[in-house]
Amino acid sequence: MNISIIGLGSMGKMLAEKFTGSGKVPADRLFIANRSAEKLSAFEGRAVICRTNGEAAASADVLFLCVRPVDMKTVLNGIKSSLRADTFVISLNASIPFGLLEQHLPDYRIAKVIPSVTAEIDRSQTLVCYNNKVTANDKSMLSDLLACMGKVYELPEAELGMGSELVSCMPGFIAAVFDVICASAGKHTSLPKEQITEMVLGTVNATSELMQKKSMSFSDVVDRVATKGGITEEGTSVIYRGLPATADEMFEKTLEKRRLTAEKAKELLI
Fold first, then answer.
1. Residue-wise DSSP of 5-16
2. Mean pLDDT confidence for 169-190
C-alpha cells in the first residue's frame, strides 16, 4: 500500500516522521511532496521524493493532505487529473467540512484526521471522522496506521470541533494554566522557577497516572486530598469559584474562532 503526504508543515512532517520511524511505511511506499524543496531533503533515503503534488497523488493508495485552508483549493485543482478513483483521501484540516471537499472530490472516500502534538512521544489522542463512502476496512486500516502515534478516536463530524479543543488544543490550554500557576507560586517563594516547574510537572504526571491506574475521577482526587477544613480545601474552593467563568469564556472564544475559520475556508474553496 502506497502512502502519500502533500505538505510538510508541522503535521505533515510529524506524520512522515512517525510513519518512517515506526516502520509502518517502508521507504519505497511513502511518497512526499512539498512546495519548497528544503523540507523534502530531510527525508532523502526514507521516502520517495516527488517533484510535484500530482506525482504524489498519482502514486497514492492513501493520500494525506496536510495543507492550509488557503492552499487547499489550489492543491485539489492541481491533483484532480492525477488522482486515482480508488484513492482514500485524508484531510488534516478540521475547518473544511466534507461537503466542501466532496464538491471537489465527488465519489471519493474521505476522512479527516486531527492529531495532537503529543504524537511526538507516541501519546497522541488522534481524532478521525469519515464521510459516508468510507468502508469498515478503510477505518480499520487507518486506525492501524495512526496507532503509531497513540490512541485513535472516531467522532462524528459535528463533534470534531470540540474534540479538537479537548485533544489537539488542550496541550496548549494545559500549558497556559500551569504557566500561570507556576508564575503565581514564584511570587510567594524563593524557589527557582525551574524547580517550581519541575515539581508541578512531576505532580501533574503522577496525578494523571494515579487517576488512570485507579480509575479515579477529578472529584475523587479532590475529595482524597482536600480534607474538610484543611489547606487544600481552601485552595480548591478558590479554583471552583473562579475558574468556571474562565473555562466557559475560553471555549466560547475558541469555538467561535473555529466557526469563523470554517466560514473563511468555505469562501476559499467555493
1. EE--SHHHHHHH
2. 97
